[in-house]
Automatic annotation (TrEMBL):
Residues 128-262 form the Fatty acid hydroxylase domain. It comes from Papaver somniferum (Opium poppy). Its main location: membrane. Belongs to the sterol desaturase family. This is Fatty acid hydroxylase domain-containing protein. InterPro entries: Fatty_acid_hydroxylase, Sterol_Desaturase_Related. It holds the Pfam family FA_hydroxylase. The keyword Zinc does not apply. Keywords: Membrane, Transmembrane, Transmembrane helix. It is found in: Membrane. One of its GO terms (cellular component) is membrane. The chain crosses the membrane at residues 39-63, 94-115, 177-204. GO terms for molecular function: iron ion binding; oxidoreductase activity.
Length: 305
C-alpha cells in the first residue's frame, strides 16, 4: 500500500521522485495496487496458479478426450488412455493442494510492490537467474526424492501418472510441494525483484511444467529452439521408467543430467529407436512462375532428414 491519500497525489509525487512521467503500465499498476496491502497482492499468486493450471492444459486435454486424430499422432505413449473422470480428479486434487499448501507460503513472501516497475532488461536478467538457480537445485532435490525412502514416502504420488498429463504437473504429495518449492523461491530470495517479475516467473515456470507433462511432443513447439531444453519427450521417459528411474531428473534444462551422467538410459533408448524406426525425411516443394511474359514454371524441392 502506497502512503498517499489520492491516486493523483501519488502520481505527482512519484513523477517528482523518479524525474519522469509514469509509463502506461506504471499508471495501471498504481491505479490497481495503491490502496491494497502487500499481503493482499502476495495472495494474488494463488489466483495466478489457479488460472494457469486450469486453463493452459485444457486445449490438449480436451482434444485427447475427443480423440482428435490431428494431435493423437504426437502422443508419446499412445496406448495409455485417461478418462475424463480421472482428469477431473487430478485437477481437483491439484487445486486443493494449491489452496492448502501453496497458499500459506504467501505469509513469508517478500517482494517489492511499489514503483518504478522493473525495465524489460531487468526482468529478463532476473528471470534467467531464477531459471538457472531453480534448475540446478531442483535437479538435486528431485534426485534425492528417487532414493528408496524419498520415493516410497513422498515422490511415488507424482509418479502415479506413468504417462503424464498437463494437469498432473503439480500433482504430488504435500511434502514434495514444499520441498520442490524451495528452488522456486530460492532465486527470488537471492535476487529480489518486483512482484510483477515474480508473477512472470511463476507463469513461465508453470507453463514449462505443464508442457513437460503434457504427454505430447509437438514438432512446432517454440521451446525446441532453446539450448539444452528438456521438453515433454525428455521428461516423459522419466515417468515411463517410473520409480526405478535414475535418469532425466532435469527440471528445465538437461545440462545437469549430461554432466552427472543421469541421461545415459534415455540417450541409449533414443539412439536405439532411431535405428529401429528411422524417420523419413521431411520434404518441401516450391513452384513459381519465372516471368509474366514467359509461360514457364520452375519447381524445386528441399528435404530435411
Amino acid at each position: 500500500m502506497l502512503p498517499y491519500q489520492t491516486l493523483q497525489e501519488a502520481e505527482l509525487e512519484l513523477e517528482l521522485e523518479l524525474g519522469r512521467e509514469l509509463s502506461y503500465a506504471e499508471k495501471l499498476w498504481l491505479d490497481y495496487s495503491a490502496n491494497k496491502s502487500d499481503f493482499y497482492l502476495y495472495c494474488h499468486t494463488i489466483l495466478v496458479l489457479f488460472v494457469i493450471f486450469s486453463l493452459v492444459p485444457l486445449p490438449v486435454v480436451f482434444m485427447e478426450i475427443k480423440k482428435a486424430h490431428t494431435i493423437l499422432k504426437y502422443k508419446i505413449q499412445p496406448k495409455v488412455k485417461i478418462s475424463a473422470q480421472g482428469i477431473f480428479k487430478c485437477w481437483k486434487d491439484v487445486m486443493i493442494t494449491i489452496c492448502l499448501v501453496v497458499g500459506p507460503l504467501q505469509l513469508v513472501s517478500v517482494f517489492r510492490t511499489g514503483l518504478p516497475l522493473p525495465s524489460g532488461w531487468e526482468m529478463v536478467m532476473q528471470l534467467l537467474v531464477y531459471f538457472l538457480v531453480e534448475d540446478y537445485t531442483n535437479y538435486w532435490l528431485h534426485r534425492w526424492l528417487h532414493c528408496k525412502w524419498g520415493y516410497d514416502k513422498i515422490h511415488s504420488v507424482h509418479h502415479e501418472y506413468e504417462a503424464p498429463i498437463g494437469f498432473a504437473a503439480p500433482y504430488a504429495h504435500w511434502a514434495e510441494i514444499l520441498i520442490l518449492g524451495i528452488p522456486t523461491f530460492l532465486g527470488p530470495a537471492m535476487v529480489p525483484g518486483h512482484m510483477i517479475t515474480f508473477w512472470s516467473w511463476i507463469i513461465l515456470r508453470q507453463m514449462e511444467a505443464i508442457e513437460t507433462h503434457s504427454g505430447y511432443d509437438f514438432p512446432w513447439t517454440p521451446t525446441k529452439y532453446i539450448p539444452f531444453y528438456g521438453g515433454s519427450e525428455y521428461h516423459d521417459y522419466h515417468h515411463y521408467v517410473g520409480g526405478q528411474s535414475q535418469s532425466n531428473f532435469a527440471s528445465v534444462f538437461t545440462y545437469c543430467d549430461y554432466i552427472y551422467g543421469t541421461d545415459k538410459g534415455y540417450r541409449y533408448q533414443k539412439h536405439y529407436l532411431e535405428k529401429v524406426n528411422p524417420q523419413p525425411p521431411i520434404c518441401f516443394s516450391f513452384r513459381f512462375t519465372v516471368s509474366d511474359f514467359m509461360n514457364m514454371e520452375v519447381c524445386f524441392g528441399i528435404c530435411i532428414s
